Queue: 4 jobs
Job 1
Amino acid sequence: MSRYRLLPTPAQEAVLRGHCAHARYVWNLAVEQHAHSRPGRAGAPSYLEQCRQLTQAREAGRNEGFRIVAVKPTQVRRLSRKTGEAWVPKAGWVRFRLSRPVPPGAKSYQVTRDRAGRWHVAFAAIPDPIPAPGNGQTVGIDRGVAVSAALSTGELLHVPGLTAREQMSLRRLERKLARAKRGSNRRSRARRAIARLKARETDRRKDWAEKASTGIARRFDLIMFEDLHIKNMTRSAKGTQQNPGRNVGQKAGLNRGILRSGWGLLMRRLEQKASGRVEKINPAFTSQRCSACGQVDPKSRESQAVFRCTACGYACHADVNAAKNIAAGHAVTARGGDGNTRPVNREPHLVLQSAQ
């Protein structure tokens, strides 16, 4: 979907809120009808699943919206180089920021309101994939927390987050929110301010993913990733009261870092833009294998950023070394670097003598 920022007037915003309330009412009615219908209908979501979705829909001011279908060319028009208008029933022509051309052939558009109170319009259209450059080049991408994405070419990509000043403001607002009384205006103002900062961080992450994925899709014919199960990796480590987890604070911080790095978003956009040119490999031992000689040794990973092979002495950034293994398609197993023989730790001087 191509999303644009809506600029409604106060009167139009009241109408949009009314449309969102009607959408919630229709959803409530659908859930109620489903609860009294025959169980196990094919193709229908379960009652528990609809109840979970209903809980999200009831949260006023968070991810609310409605869809307008059967869009006609006369329902969207351009006013100037930076402004357009979309027709919304009962609200009339609502302006939006024309940050890029509206995709042709859109059959519907969705109006949504995020947690920060901002309105957006998204036109449903499937863009054409980016054609391959035809240079035969392959790139491996290693995703991390300190470095969001390391390319086998040696490039290190970082997701732009909140600035130091914005992080200080966020911590101050979170303390204010914790002290405020539930249901008070002060608490509501603090929540809105926090939501605006979080939305700013999310916008920067999405913008980075769009630009990075477009650049990679235009430069390389084949793009290779580790086959990571991000949902399982970011699962809470809190555990239960009977069986509590360990290192919960550290695991929660790691989960936030993984989600903040946009791992899934980058790969998803590359799969869409470079359709048929993205491959996934087994991530086993890609960070411990030397991309120069194939030696597998966890001691070669001296730190988060430094890789120094204990066999041949090859040294480079640890994430770049892993990206080179990914680009080569090495799904290293416990048997060894080549998948057949067990890796043997060789002394660096012996390797140098054999090379001579």
Job 2
Amino acid sequence: MRAFLDTPIPRPLIEEILTKASRAASGGNVQPWQLYVLTGDALHRFKARMVERLAQSTEGDLPVEYHVYPHPLKAPYRDSRFKNGEDYYGLAGIPREDKAARARFFANNYSFFGAPVALFCLIDRQMGPPQWSDLGCIWPP
């Protein structure tokens, strides 16, 4: 289960981490990422907006521009993902058939599990899988 302390992170520490991360290697030194940090009031406003958006969604989650997993996801990956979901919601005491409770619990993703800082790493839409893999080079710095 994910959960974080709500202890504020000093701004100089965030800046140090992001400065080091920004020097990560990337193919052709393109460094295709843009990093955004939300803390304090900005983070609270973002979380409130996400609560509104989720309430407007009939699916319990927001629509996506691309699929996170291949469709159809085949064994052994589907089996592993299924077991992980069963274990995750089982630990939370949410039965498989309670889809509404699962959707509410899933919404914790949009509150960052209580973390005091949200980091967003964006990449230009023209970039493809090789540049997406560059993103993995910046964490951890």
Job 3
Amino acid sequence: MSVSQVAAAIQTQSKYERLIARAAQLQPPRTIVVHPCDETSLRGASEAARAGLILPVLVGPERKIHEVAREHKIDIDSFEIVEASHSDGSAAQAVELIRSAKGELLMKGSLHTDELMRAVTSSSNGLRTKRRISHVFVMDVPTYAETLFITDAAINILPDLDVKRDIVQNAIDLFTQVGLGTPRVAILSAVETVTSKIPSTIDAAALCKMADRGQITGGLLDGPLAFDNAIDPQAAKIKGIDSPVAGRAQILVVPDLEAGNMLAKNLSFLARADAAGIVLGARVPIILTSRSDSVRTRMASCAVAALYADARRRAPVLPAA
């Protein structure tokens, strides 16, 4: 293995670790953990707290939470617990704590994602802002030198152009505010030329023009780009695409949820990538973890959210809807 290959391997192995190490140096954000009533979610919050990434407040049935902690030998003695009788009640109570400025982050526990998001997106007492809510996978792909963001693969099913604008801006804001620099943003489609037969190519071209006109800020956009010429320099060269983004993308914006979900899972299961998850566009960032996540992935999700929360302390937050 050459020196450059060794260096690339070290860089790849340390993508998440660098984020975790930086977040551990900050004041841990007060994090409302919603219904942590199984081992996975309770241990995830405990381990993140022990690493100095978050300060958990557990919301849920106190008796059940203590039973899980005793059964699995998880130390929660120092954590505040806010009583809620069931998962829907936990979600509502957690959102109310955020609305009352008693937390900087939300973290999903053992309830279903749609239960949590129903409370978050409530028009009367949720956490909506003027920005559309969207999800970002922060992926550590062993075969790719960059930390790779994929959006949106979990919230918006068939986003129109206006929603895609917010999806792109949310991802750019996250990338820049966690200290990763100015992102190279690839707007993906099946091909790299604009054609009326593939509507996502038209949206991609429009998003790039919106960036030119200041409607999207903070990133370098190019699109439409097919997946290969977005992430592989040689593929981009063969197609004659000359741009600062092609072949070196850091944010991949997918046409719809189906495409994004399949892309993220392909990378996870075929390339053995880790996929940390965070929801943006609400009043606070929301940490979404899966029961199948590794400890490292859970830590990375908390680290990214903690870095973002720290940046938000020093900048205006999005206005409420």
Job 4
Amino acid sequence: MLVSLPHQKRLDDFLHRLRQAGKQELGYPTAFDLDYSVLAEFLTVNLNNCGDPFMPMTYQVNSHEFEREAVAFFAELTRAPKEQWWGYVTNGSTEGNLYGLYLARELHPTGIVYFSQDSHYSVSKNLHFLNMRHIMIRSQENGEIDYDDLRETIRIRRDAPPIVFANIGTTMKEARDDVGRIRSILDELAIEQRYIHSDAALCGGYAAYLDPRPAWDFGDGADSISISGHKFFATPIPCGIVLAKRAHVERIGHSVAYIGSMDTTITGSRNGLTPLMLWYAISALGHAGMKRRLAQSLAIAAYAEEQFKRAGIAAWRNPAALTVIFPQPAGAVCNKWQLATANGISHVVCMPHVTRQQVDELLQDILASAVEVS
């Protein structure tokens, strides 16, 4: 299938613009360093992963076998209970978070969701979709949830099962809520009916490789976990992984004759290409490759923080974070480098593709704009 020369030129120009924009994208947690072009031939196949990836289905043009392997890798990474977990590849972490909250609602219909000020903006949207009662908890200065406020708020409403939405890498500050500490609070209050969802969209791809390892996964008390694939794993199509305890999932599944499978996911038809991409990245990199990319990213983040401070800019980051926060620079600088900005602060997310040269050029632009203003 071919398009006319003017249309082809438009496509070529668009691709060029995208590649140029990618060279100056520092504000969002999307990596660009992995090449998935080896999978291009699969664009000629209508891959559709409808239904439960662990169940047979009548439509056989799917990548369920690769999806199962990819999800199993993340189950190991998150210390999911052996043979007692379930998961699938989502359209992104918003869907994964929706799934976790949906399971929590079905398990605890009268529950109250507790989430912090720094939670992703989609959380409120998901809670509206699900019509769940909720209370926002204060955040600490570094973006982490205020555990004292959480404890007291749950204590005075202990007649309703608490559903705690934990952030493992907040949007602006990459703060990580301590799932183990949240579990301890619920233990102290002698609350048996509970649910903890771990929103690990940002950090879930590498949290298991950090030393010391943060408290964020099933081993620490999570009931479900959402992770992004297009962030640390650089998939060119947005996607994610959601994992949950099998017992919770079994409460919502039902058989669908049309597809000859179980309906246990949020959507019907699902992308069959993204599981293949995740499987490819996992197979090509392995644990050693993941650790290498993480070490590279942490080194660049440390470099950026140090260079900004040397230049007199009040930059900082949370422990072992890839996100460097600093005062909001001039609008032209934010636009050029596509810096995410909120409440007077901006940040750089040092994903594996970010280089020292890019950091240096950004710093030069910030200093030059400051001189122009003065």
